[in-house]
Amino acid sequence: MGLVPAPSRSLHKLDQIPYTHRSFDTKIWINTRYARAGKICIIGNAVNFVAVTDYRQVTNDDGPPGSDSPFVDYFIDALKKYTDWDISVALPDCQKSWISKAHVIGHTMTASYILPSPTPGEPYEGPYYKKRNQGEEEWVLLDGTPASCAQIGIHHLFNDKGPVNLVLSGPNFGRNSSALYILSSGTIGAALEGALCGIPSIGLSFAYNSPVLDPEHTKTACWLSVRLVKYLYDAWPKDDTVDLYSINIPLNAELSDDTKIKYTHILENRWGSAFEYIEDTVLKSATGELVEVADQVQPEIDDKSGRLQFRWKPNLKAVQDGVTEWPDGNDASAVAQGIISVTPLRANYQGVAGYTGELKLPSSSLRSSPSFTAVITYTSTSYIYPLLTANLHSLFPNVKIVSDPNDPVIEKGSGINVFHYAEYEDLNFERLIADREHYLACSYIYRKALIRKNFLAHAIATYKVKHPDTILTKHFPESYELELDYAEYLDEMLDEIYEFRDQLIDHDSWWILKPSMSDRGQGIRLFHTREELQEIFESYEEMDEEEEEEENDDDAAVKTISESNGIVTSQVRFFLIQKYIKNPLILESCGNRKFHIRTYVVASGALKVYVYKDMLALFALKQYSSPDSDSDLEAHLTNTCLQGDFRDEGSVRRFWSLEGFDKEMVWDQICSITGETFAAAVSLGRLHFQPLPNAFEIYGVDFLVDSDLNTSILEVNAYPDFAQTGDELKELVDGLFKNVLTEIVAPFFTAKDIQESQKDGSGYRELALVLDQNISGGW
């Protein structure tokens, strides 16, 4: 559905508004797909939310910030920090509590403006009667009721921002639980007015036990309020069952992210007299000053001095004490037990059936996250740029994103928190070494023990000597390092690795040759005789001669895999020879094609290593057959980078969607192998792998499963080509970035262990911790 027109601002008759106003296809209610990033308007102690432009309005019944309204500025500050909503505020100019959803007939309301302090709790500037329009965020004050603030805010004050999507009323200075409170509440009245205008609305109240307020408790309550409001709005029923919510948050020292949240109904309690008789409380003294008469006597009416008067004095303590007499499940008893209460309502104060039990919010790291700048120096059209930026905005709405690699924030000494995601050569390594508190980079400096194939083989070989029982003994193919400048020296090199030479003479095994520093499958060849190996190196040299005249032409068009995986031997001296696994797991359901598993592994700090559970299966183009001298590489090479235009829909699949074998067994092996592989790299020394506390890196690690379900690690790739995942499985990469930002980036800038907050499994966590090793000194 396309964007629909904004609702008319000149509706006067009720029958002009469609009855099905909650329908997502009417003019009054805009499809929420276009209203998630949001603009909010806050009215009275209510916030209004607008759909097309994602706009919210806030209001209350306590008025502007002050002793009678101590929460609204903290709440607006939290909305700005933890959402990207556009917020407008319209409040009563003074306290208007206990006024319900009243409008004062015949009263002409006047607007004034205030400029709130950037620091919650500090005095505001104003009021003044003419809008300054200097780009400052002014709040509107109206000399009317909270419901009138909601009405005028929705239909008149903020028309230039588009229609309101959500009305937030509050936070009220005190509870609004049970019928006695909620039916008289101006806070709920403003939310009810918003609902009657066809806009989702939420009334928010903070139930305090002591008039002495702790700002930290207030900030916690506001943080939880924002999370809960976002959750309720995103999950708002589309079947016209809920018009508004009433939220009550117990403001106490125990309030935290772990505080329970429950759906409740309104406690239908009763009370007695809410007033007391008094004699005329206002008399004039001899000096003309007003004095209060303390004695309370039964009034007498006479024509000279007696006036019948009543003073507001409800016994609210008795009301609250009486809550314990009622069974649990209601809003008042929940608040009394320190539980956050969420009450779904229709716009006639009736409850909504079907909402019971505990409500769990998704885990979030937003609250403790300070502002930081994300430097993303990929082009906006790249595969990963929109995924990264969308997740950054979603998880850290106050983040600033820049794309200039020369932006001053990157420089050493800027003192600005920076998350730098860029190509290796674009990172600021000087700052990476010097500024471990404010600069987080997406790559380590030294990691050739992992990403160079010959170094990886050497690291694993060394590790196996020291740890003979390691899983790597049976789960890394037999490998030999080869250093060769020219093909004519091959025999001399083979003499140095005689174990391999002897096997080559026997012709019993097939082998795979990999240039140590190449990636994307470039230069890979199969062979099983010394003569075939000689021919491979000679063919490399022929390619050198053909390319001498085409300087730096590494992107020449290719037709087939066999033509596309050449290398320049003048640039490559080191090779790795591995025994070819001739019995790979072949799945009939996947066309009997060979495949390998691409696993994304995240190394963080110094040092934790995680394996991302959502893995890929990358398939060869052709049906598998045992290798021979005339083998077509397209049946053996599973690297999709080499397939180019020949790649088909079945080339890339989700690992967990495959059938016909024990996937959990393979997963367990992958986790164990990965942990020990990184331990092997660490053991090789800091010159070859140097973990840093302010860096992390995503690797693409390749595994092959044989017909006996033995899993072997093949190689580790830095800066994996995420684009090979394709558009259909882009959500897999999106989930990876979401996990990295939640598990790695957020804790770095908050000094908070995200894992502790996600033990309930409600977060994004799909990263399995496979190695947790404290590298002394950050190396």
TrEMBL record:
Superkingdom, taxonomy of origin: Eukaryota
GO molecular function, one term: hydrolase activity
Pfam family, one: SurE
Database matches in SUPFAM superfamilies: Glutathione synthetase ATP-binding domain-like (SSF56059), SurE-like (SSF64167)
A cellular component annotation (GO) from this entry: P-body
Domain annotation Survival protein SurE-like phosphatase/nucleotidase: ranges: 58-272
PANTHER family: TUBULIN--TYROSINE LIGASE PBY1-RELATED (PTHR47551:SF1)
NCBIfam families: surE (TIGR00087)
Protein name: Survival protein SurE-like phosphatase/nucleotidase domain-containing protein
Organism for this UniProt entry: Lipomyces starkeyi NRRL Y-11557
Taxonomic path: Eukaryota, Fungi, Dikarya, Ascomycota, Saccharomycotina
